[in-house]
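From the shared-data thread, chain only:
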Amino acid sequence: MKNTINEDFYPQYPIMSYKNGGTINIKKSKRGTFTAAAKKHGKSVQAFAN
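Structure, as tokens:
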């Protein structure tokens, strides 16, 4: 039995990680909706997330 990493688990194409400059893409129609919901409930964004 070989002791190797399953190559099917890892994609063959490069994936940008966030620490290497990858970005999070948010649809323009969804921008600010979470902040608006937090303000509606009288909470900060961080408190609303928890």
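The CA atoms of residues 3 and 25 lie 38 Å apart.
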